[in-house]
Amino acid sequence: MDLLVYGIGQLASPVGWEPRRGPAQGELSIRRDAYLVVCEGRIAEIGEGRRPRFSGPALDAGGRCVTPGLVDPHTHAVFAGSRVQEFVARARGERYTGSGILNTVGATRAASEEELVALARPRLLRMLELGTTTVEVKSGYGLSPADEVKMLHAVRRLGEGLPMTLVPTFMGAHAFPPELPREEYERLLVEEMIPAVARDGLARFCDVFCDEGFYTVDEARAILAAAREHGLGLKVHADELAPVGAAELAGELSAVSAEHLLHVSREGIQALARAGTVAVLLPGAAFVLDEPYPPARDLIAAGVPVALGTDFNPGSSPVASLPLVLSLAVLKMKMSPEEVLVGATLHAAAAVGLADKVGSLEPGKRADLVVWDTESYEEIPYWIGQNLAWAVVAGGRLVVPSHVEGLPRGAEEDRCAD
Ligand SMILES: [Zn+2]
C-alpha cells in the first residue's frame, strides 16, 4: 500500500532499532511541517517543508501531531466471561489475590475457538481506534493442552483478520488448573505443551507468572528453560504481588522482558540492567487494584529500558487504552511525556521482539502511525481519558476512521515506482 501523509504539524518519534537506556529513553526526533511517504506498506521517506509530488493516495494531517502506532506489549485480550463482580467487590474493599483468574479459565474453557475470536475482535478494534497497531496477546486462561492451543489458534485467526500486528505468547504457566496436582501440570507444560506450541509455530514467546501464590522461581526457571530449548523467547510476569526474585530470574535468563515489577527488589533492577531485559510496566493494573505503582524512575536511572502496556484483562486491568496508560505513567510514575512515548512505541516493540520492524517512524519500518488531534505529543497523556487518535494508519493503510474510500485514489503508478 502506498500513501503520502502530509501537512504534519509535528512528527515525533524515537530513533533506532533497539532500546534506548537511561537518559536516552527521553530522546525523540521532532520534525515540524513534515511529510511521510509510504511505499508498499513501509516508510520510504520522511521530509520537511513543501508537500512532495505523489500521485498515490494522500492524507492531509491538517497540522496535527503524528507519532508511531502504539505497541501494547502485554495483554490478555482473548478470554470469555466478565469479572465485573470482582470490580464491585474491590469497591467494597476486598483485595486482589489473583484467584479470580480461575473464573475466566472456566468461561474460556467453555467457549469455542469461534466464540473466543468473536469476543476478542471488537476489543482489539477498540484498541486500534485508540492508536494501538501492534498487540501482544497471551494465552493462559485454558490451562490444559487443548484449551491453550485453542486460545493461540484464536490469536492467529484474529491476526489474519485484523490490520494490526498480533504477537502470540504462550502462558500456560499463568495459574494452576484445579483438576491436576501441581507437579503433574508442570510436567505437562514442559514435556507436552511447550513442545507442541513451538512445533506448530503458535507462539513467539513463553511467559510464566512467577510470584507469591503462583510459580516459584525454581519452577519458572525449569519451564522457561524448556521454552528456550524449543526456540521460544522468554518473558516473566515478575514480582507483581511480592518481591520473590522473579526479576533476578529474568535477568539471569536474559529474558526479553520482565513485566509488572510492582515489588521488584534493588537486586532485581540490577539484574535487568545487566541483561538488557526490557521492564514492561503496567500502571493500569496498579490503578485498578489501588496498589503502589512500579518504580519507573529507579529502573530508568539504573539503565533498564522501560516499556508500557495495558495488561488488558478482565480482572486486574480492564484497560484497553494505551493513551490512558501514558497519562498514568506521567502522573503516577513521574515519567516524562518523551519517556512514555518511547515506552509505548520503541521499547514496547523491543519487548515483543519487533524493534527492527515497528516502534519508530524511520525509513524501512512498517508504516504504522497515528495522527493525533493535538498539536504536540505532550498532549497525548495530558488530555486524560479521551480518544485523540484522529486517524490510524497500519501497514500504509488508513484503518481508522474506516472510511478508507474517502481517500482520493491515485494512479497505479506513483513515485514509489521510481
Ligand atoms: Zn498479565
- Number of helical stretches of at least 4 residues: 14
Output the CATH topology of the largest domain.
TIM Barrel
Distance between the first and last residues' Cα: 15 Å
Q: What's the number of extended β-strand segments?
A: 16
Overview of this protein structure:
The structure is a single chain. The protein is an alpha/beta fold and 418 residues long. It folds into 2 domains: 125 residues, Roll (Urease, subunit C, domain 1), CATH 2.30.40; 281 residues, TIM Barrel, CATH 3.20.20.140. Helices cover 34% and strands 22% of the residues. It is built from 14 helices and 16 strands. The strands form 2 sheets. Strands 1, 2, 3, 4, 5, 14, 15 and 16 form an 8-stranded mixed beta sheet that branches. The chain has an 8-stranded parallel beta sheet with strand order 6-7-8-9-10-11-12-13. α5 links the parallel β8 and β9. α3 crosses α4 and α5 packs parallel to α6. The longest helix has 18 residues. The chain is globular, with a radius of gyration of 21 Å. The two termini are 15 Å apart. About 2% of the residues have low confidence. It binds zinc ion.
